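Moderator note: this is an archived Q&A kept for reference. The question asked for a predicted structure of one protein chain; the sequence and the answer are reproduced below.
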Amino acid sequence: MNLSKSRIDKAGRSLASPKELTIESLELEEDFDEYRISHLEPLSLTTLELQSWLHEYGGSYYIAQRVKRKPQIVRKLRRLSVRLTQLQDIGGCRIIVEKNEDVDRLISFIKENVSKSETFIVKRVTDYRDKGRDETGYRSAHLLLDRGGFSLELQIRSRIQHYWSESIERTSVIYGKHLK
């Protein structure tokens, strides 16, 4: 990817606040798409590495990954008034375990494995499980990972936390209100 940070942010602004359709706005949309999809390779490599470690973990789990879809990115840019390059969850991975205690155990397990690895680092851990996030009550632990300059988000939740989050997401769609 040969896009500058300022060009990526300009593409984000163009999509978040569209004006008129021009050749430049179409080019910026292509740049946006290129930036978004550039997260796929580092995300896939990270997910595969996590999955190989999880064979040694010893507990039951479910792992999935996704590159955030364009409409969700645009909504987030509008809602938070941030630059595209500031978003840390364009590439995201989620691990679901049985119980909340398993979340703690898995965070420690992953941090230990990352400390032995040279492929990515844990930049920050944000734990929304005790108090919930904002007024929504969302609960999950988020690990912000960096792989080759790409910020990736790893969410670790229990099955009940995942069920709650998915229920809120569906309810938001049904009622047309952003609840999460």
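Archived answer notes: The beta strands are 61-67, 91-97, 121-127, 141-147, 150-158.
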